[in-house]
Amino acid sequence: MTSKLDADARAILQANDRGGYTVPNGRVYPFQWNWDSAFVALGFDTFDRDRAWRELETLFRAQWDDGFLPHIVFWKDDPGYFPGPSVWGTNKEPVTSGITQPPVAATVVRKLWESAKAAGESGSYRPRLDALFAKLMSWHRWFYDYRDPDKRGVVVAMHPWETGRDNSPEWDAPGEPIDVSNVGDYVRRDTSHLDAKMRPTKLEYDRYLALVQFGRSTGWNHARISAENPFRVADVGMSMILLRANRDLKALADELGMSNESAEIGSWIDLAELGIGWLWDDRIGAWCSRDLLSGRSSGFVTSASFLSFYAGLRDEQRDAATRAHFDRIAGMVDYLMPSLDPADPGFQMIRYWRGPVWAVVNYMIGTGLTETGDVPRGNRVRGDTLALMERNGFFEAYSPIDGTGSGGDDFSWTAAIWLAWSKGR
Ligand code: DGY
Questions:
Q1: How many CB atoms lie within 10 A of CB 176?
Q2: 161 CB within 6 A, ligand 1
Q3: Is the pLDDT at 1 greater than 60, yes or no?
Q4: Contact, 208 vs 159, CB < 8 A?
Q5: Which of 17, 101, 121, 208 could make a disulfide contact with 71, Cβ separation 3.0–4.6 Å?
Q6: Distance set, CA 25 to CA 17, 85, 97, 221, 358 (Å)
Q7: 185 contacts: CB under 8 Å, gap ≥ 6
Q8: Active site residue 166
Q9: What is the Å distance from ligand 1's center to 161 Cα?
Q10: Taking residues 403-412, what's their average pLDDT?
Q11: Inter-CA distances, 249 with 254, 288, 361, Å
Q12: Angle at 342 between CA 338 and CA 348, to 5 degrees
């Protein structure tokens, strides 16, 4: 069973390989996506180390001069996707989108480096690590410069797509003030590949496009966007992921003897440890995103609420409250971790980010729990994730209730998580 699944998972990565980068899914997402590629590298690393590093090296070739790393790189146009390069209008070479995505890359690079060392290949990978380190450093500095205006140690998302959790209900209230009256006509392509019941609604799509149009109207000036964007939400997911990534980047800096960089990263970590409590919602005892413009917490328990362990945060009371939500939800579903609390009236088992389980989020939740010594809960998440793939194949996401696949099939990052996690990475 396992070896067949290993072979299937590898075949998916190989089929989605476009030569140095991997598309998440050939039909629905035909370009290089930022955090998809980072997870994909973890999968490649289990059978082709050089290819794993190349995935990230290719992604960073699209980095802008100010350190910004885009969420999509349009290496080759594809009419099957909307909004394509001409809608973004970033005027960059290679052509990219103008928003970013959750910064998991530093954590992945550290994993790749550990695995190269364990294989006795540190000599040949060290120059590649040096080069990637400098790029990661400038991306993380970009977050500090442009995405944390109040210096609270959080990440402020300027677009729901930046969070990777595209249509989480966390963005509903913050999205309301977005003016969609001038969006104009457009033809979505996602709903021609996938059942519309799984995808964001028309109103959500209008908001996504209004935000793209706003960014474009500033010439993708990130300073202006961070001051004027109509959507500014401190995303609990990105904030936890960046804190974790900074810990991994600092470990790399220390190993490389980069003491100035290590101190700089250390100051970001200190800032986050002091300030990230702003995302704790006392009313429901959970980690939630918070709208910068209204100051309000989303009040939703989502899969991102369980990333505090992965972020390395420890607080007895908050951890106990988070575990209590975990256990309550674990009693309601066959497969953890639903992207929205199943007790929420808005829970939908197959609509994106309003119910389904994502293997990559589970990977982070499970890894965090296990690292903090909570092996039983870590194992539950890992076991559920692998069981979903064994029973249903490598889908983009799955129903937490009955395991039905949701979204695209033969999905790269899902296959990658199978390879990484089933090998104990
Ligand atoms: C999409 O097109 O749905 C993507 O998630 C945007 O990144």
A1: 12
A2: yes
A3: no
A4: yes
A5: 101
A6: 10, 18, 18, 30, 15
A7: none
A8: yes
A9: 6
A10: 96
A11: 9, 25, 20
A12: 80
Q: Please give the single-letter amino acid code of residue 407.
A: G
Counting atoms of ligand 1 from 1, which one is nearest the CA of 200? 3
**Percent of the chain residues past pLDDT 70, beyond the cut:** 100
> Could you tell me if 304 and 154 are in contact, meaning their C-beta atoms sit under 8 angstroms apart?
no
Q: Find the largest Cα–Cα distance for the chain.
A: 59
pTM of the model: 0.98
Ligand 1 contacts CB of residue 190 (under 6 A) = yes
Q: What is the pLDDT of residue 226?
A: 97
Q: CA–CA separation, 211 vs 230, rounded Å? A: 8
- Tell me the pLDDT tens digit for each residue of 75-114: 998 999 999 999 999 999 999 999 999 999 999 999 999 9
| Residue of 97, 162, 163, 166 with the most ligand 1 atoms within 8 Å of its CB, for mutation | 166
**Catalytic residue from among 166, 172, 334, 409:** 166
Among residues 366, 365, 70, the alpha carbon closest in space to that of 241 is found at 365
312 in Cβ contact with 248 (< 8 Å): no
Buried b (16+ CB within 10 A) or exposed e, 361-388: bbbbbbbbbbebebeebbebbbebbbeb
Atom of ligand 1 nearest to the CA of 97: 7
DSSP string spanning 142-201? HHHHHS-TT-SS--EESSHHHHS-TT-GGGHHHHTT---TT------SHHHHS-GGGSPP
Ligand 1 lined by 166 (C-beta under 6 Å): yes
Distance from residue 358's CA to the centre of ligand 1 (Å): 15
pLDDT of residue 2: 65
Each residue of 151-179: pLDDT tens digit? 999 999 999 999 999 999 999 999 999 99
| Residue 78 Cβ < 6 Å to ligand 1 | no
3-class DSSP state for residue 303?
A: helix
Evaluate whether 356 touches 399 at the Cβ level (below 8 Å): yes
Closest ligand 1 atom to the C-alpha of 71? Answer: 7
Which residue's entry shows tokens 């300073």? 223
Mean pLDDT, residues 55-75 taken together: 98
112 Cα–ligand 1 center, Å: 27
**Ligand 1 nearest atom to the CA of residue 81, by list position:** 2
Q: Which amino acid, residue 33? A: W
Among 29, 339, 360, the mutation site with the greatest number of ligand 1 atoms within 8 A of its Cβ is 29
Going from the C-alpha of 180 to that of each of 88, 131, 177, 209, the distances in angstroms are 17, 42, 9, 8
